[in-house]
Specification:
- The chain has about 625 residues and is an alpha+beta fold.
- The protein has ten helices and 36 strands.
- It has an eight-stranded mixed β-sheet with strand order 29-30-32-31-33-34-35-36.
Length: about 625
């Protein structure tokens, strides 16, 4: 067990948090978005060849995220919104003139955007927006747009029939835009390609109305894809194939139940490779498929987690390495010998904190049996000196999972003596398709909440926790589960809850959220509020607040377009109606989640005080 100490929060907050990383096409530089170096997420530039400090390319008070490199490696494309309202503007930044953000799309738009990619020839960018340029009006569905970089003219190349989250990519010749749509069923995806001139739009991959599929262009102009369904049969892992748009032929690279199971793919740009990822029990194994030589290399180290980003040479790759006690760092590694001792570190995210890995609390595997005999896995963090109290951290999604990764929240709570349980309840990714699909059997707020309850009971049975000493918190869906816990569980199981940006009234949430997120509610709950009004009512925490016996702290970002502040307004009226006491912490410059450094400090101190006094 690692010996945790009471860290100064300021020290923990100096550990940077890394977001998207991209290697430049000429393979000499990398760009990445990082938080906690400057005021918010900003994009930094680093060198592959020299041991030099990263230099900032942007510096603003807003979250600025990297989306793409230009093919000549001279500029990047970044996305930025105002106070996390998710209404994004795309900017171009030339690496020779940092901080000069040249807007390519309207500032503070009245619609949402997805994507943002340069064409290979550098003559246009592509993205998706829920906006009708002719009527100058926000729409329910997203359209795929090609925008000429010289003239600024926009061509709508695709108009899906139904709202959905649209992922896009551009083929190596710049002729086609590959994109996803969900026209047949909210739970399914199909892949289409639209010509960049707007004259062609056709479906290329459809494995059934409820089949999941993800795809991207390979460097040779084929489409690499992963699907959980073949011939109408859903599998527990994903099949991986290559589709040739010219011939219409599909070659299967990996089929479920034959060899290693895979769960997703990544296609490095400007590379003849596919990264095939296996995720089981929250851990990842990466395999690199060489398209030219048709070989597979297992690039998984013996300890820690390695995410391959892109090849630098035949025997060297850029990757991200991390563990529960080591923050994400960029490394150069040999995929044929992924020995951590041989990694060349390009970043050292712990260096400025004065904290060593040995002083942090390590994640331990923790398993328990939930209802219907389902095995649940999560991470348990036990400080060397416990204060006898436990905090349960619930991840969002729910189609996401908590990884064995350094979490500032968790490390801070452990430094104060709290035990922390980080469960991956049913519906989480990282445990196979069947486990992810289990949440749909009875919908949000059903058996997934029971997975959390039985996990807490297991902690009590093992005498890690005691009745009345457990609190719970989480963001987004984690906030929703926290709401469900405080309204349904007895105080012996959960004595305090701090939901962050969590849904309270599922009908209000459906009506006020982003249009591309409504199909997700329909998928998870079996329809819209009109289709299944009973389940929306039953699974809404607002309709059970009269049961609250423990302590409640409501946390919300007032710019949140996902779980809007209407959720808070609605539940406050119900709480006051039933004379239920509660505390509230709001941030008027945050959206869906709290990320500004100063705000995170306020949040963590408040959470620690709240749980310490409540448990």
């Amino acid at each position: 067990m690692h010996v945790a100490k009471k860290f100064d929060l300021e020290s923990l907050m100096t550990i940077p948090e890394m977001s998207r990383v991209l290697l430049s096409p000429e393979k000499k530089h990398f760009a990445l978005a990082v938080n906690r170096i400057q005021e918010n997420y900003d994009v930094f530039l680093g060198s592959i060849q020299r041991d030099t400090e990263m230099v900032p390319l942007t510096r603003t008070p807003e979250a600025t995220i990297l989306t793409d490199w230009a093919s000549d490696s001279k500029s990047i494309l970044v996305a930025e919104d105002i106070a996390r309202n998710e209404r994004v503007t795309l900017y171009r930044v030339f690496i020779d003139t940092p901080f000069e953000m040249l807007p390519l799309t309207p500032k503070e738009p009245d619609h949402f955007m997805q994507g943002g990619l340069f064409s290979p020839q550098g003559d246009f960018i592509a993205y998706a927006v829920n906006y009708d340029y002719d009527r100058k009006k926000e729409t329910e569905t997203f359209r795929v747009v090609v925008q000429d970089l010289e003239s600024g003219s926009k061509t709508v190349v695709a108009r899906p029939d139904k709202p959905s989250f649209t992922r896009i990519s551009i083929d190596p010749k710049g002729k086609y835009v590959l994109y996803t749509r969900s026209d047949e069923d909210p739970s399914g995806e199909q892949c289409w390609i639209a010509s960049s001139d707007g004259n062609e739009d056709r479906e290329i991959l459809n494995f059934g109305p409820k089949a999941k599929v993800s795809a991207d262009w390979t460097n040779d102009g084929r489409v690499a894809f992963a699907t959980d369904t073949i011939d109408g049969e859903r599998y527990d892992s994903f099949a991986i194939g290559l589709y040739n748009p010219l011939s219409g032929k599909t070659d299967w690279l990996a089929v479920p139940q034959e060899g290693e199971p895979y769960d997703r793919i990544r296609i490095p740009k400007h590379s003849n490779h596919i990264v095939m990822v296996q995720e089981r029990e929250g851990r990842s194994k990466s395999y690199i498929y060489d398209l030219e030589h048709e070989t597979i290399t297992n690039a998984t180290p013996l300890r820690g987690n390695l995410m391959p980003i892109s090849p630098i040479s035949q025997t060297e790759w850029l990757g991200v390495y991390y563990s529960s006690t080591s923050p994400m760092n960029l490394v150069k590694f040999n995929p044929f010998k992924p020995d951590t001792k041989q990694f060349e570190y390009l970043t050292d995210m712990l260096r400025g904190s004065g904290i060593s890995e040995a002083e942090l609390t390590n994640a331990q595997d923790f398993r328990w049996i939930s209802i219907d005999n389902t095995m649940i896995h999560g991470w348990l963090y036990q400080p060397s000196k416990s204060n006898g109290k436990t905090i349960v951290h619930i991840h969002g999604g729910p189609t996401f999972h908590s990884r064995e990764i350094l979490n500032i929240d968790i490390q801070y709570f452990c430094s104060l003596g709290f035990n922390v349980l980080d469960p991956n309840y049913r519906g989480s990714t990282g445990y196979g398709v069947n486990f992810k699909e289990l949440i749909k059997k009875d919908g949000w707020g059903g058996s997934d909440s029971e997975d959390v309850r039985t996990g807490i009971q297991s902690l009590i049975e093992k005498e890690i926790s005691t009745p009345g000493s457990v609190g719970i918190y989480g963001t987004s869906y984690g906030g929703y589960v926290s709401w469900n816990a405080i309204v349904h569980f007895p105080v012996e199981i959960v004595a305090a809850a701090a939901p962050i940006c969590g849904m309270t009234d599922l009908v209000v949430d459906y009506e006020t959220t982003r249009p591309d997120l409504r199909p997700y509610s329909e998928e998870m709950l079996g329809g819209s509020p009109t289709d299944v009004p009973e389940i929306y009512h039953e699974r809404s925490p607002i309709n059970h607040v009269q049961n609250i016996k423990g302590n409640l702290l409501i946390i919300q970002g007032l710019r949140d377009p996902n779980v809007t502040k209407a959720n808070v307004s609605a539940v406050e009226k119900k709480l006051e109606e039933h004379k239920i006491k509660y505390e509230k912490l709001v941030f008027d410059d945050e959206g869906h989640g709290i990320i500004r450094e100063e705000n995170v400090k306020i949040l963590l101190k408040r959470l620690a005080d709240f749980f310490d006094s409540s448990l």
